[in-house]
Write a structure and sequence with these properties.
This protein has one helix and nine strands. The strands form two sheets. Strands 5-4-7-8-9 form a five-stranded antiparallel β-sheet, covered by helices on one side. A four-stranded antiparallel β-sheet has the order 3-2-1-6, covered by helices on one side. With 153 residues, it is α+β, with helices and mostly antiparallel strands.
Length: 153
């Protein structure tokens, strides 16, 4: 009697089942790692925008103050003391989904959007407070102190 060579259908199904089980165990942690990286990048983008606006103000770039306007999906660096959405000089810093700016509390007022500007000679913000950046499973809070220093938790 001769043995048959080749792969049986049952063997193929067993291999596919093993691969599916391995993927089900391995993929969820990668998803949470990616979300964590997206959150960290969004927090760094917010801090970078705040520091850029403050630095431009302290260096008296164009003899002006600079500020930051927060929206759920972006940060806008603006020139002057008042934010204008239609100003072509606004610099946009995008927040990569699934990260969002979920809460802005400036000057004791909590909202989904907000803005502040830095005083020209001192770099002190007109409002201090917090900005919360969130993903599905986590969030981080950025604190803007009355001196203009920015920190994260």
């Amino acid at each position: 009697m001769r043995g048959q060579s080749g792969i049986a259908l049952v063997e193929i199904l067993v291999v596919i089942a093993i691969i599916v089980l391995i993927l089900l165990v391995v993929l969820p942690p990668f998803s949470s790692i990616k979300e964590g990286q997206v959150l960290d990048n969004a927090v760094e983008n917010v801090i970078s925008a705040l520091n850029k606006a403050r630095t431009q103000t302290l260096s008296s770039l164009d003899s002006s103050e600079y500020g930051v306007h927060f929206e759920s999906d972006q940060i806008l660096i603006f020139k002057g003391k008042v934010f204008s959405a239609n100003d072509p000089d606004n610099e946009s810093v995008e927040i990569t989904p699934p990260a969002t700016i979920s809460n802005v509390t400036l000057g004791g007022v909590s909202a989904s959007e907000g803005e502040l500007y830095f005083a020209r000679l001192s770099g002190v913000p007109d409002k201090s407070g917090t900005v919360t950046v969130s993903v599905t499973s986590d969030s981080k809070i950025i604190t803007i102190s009355p001196t203009g220093a920015v920190s994260k938790n």
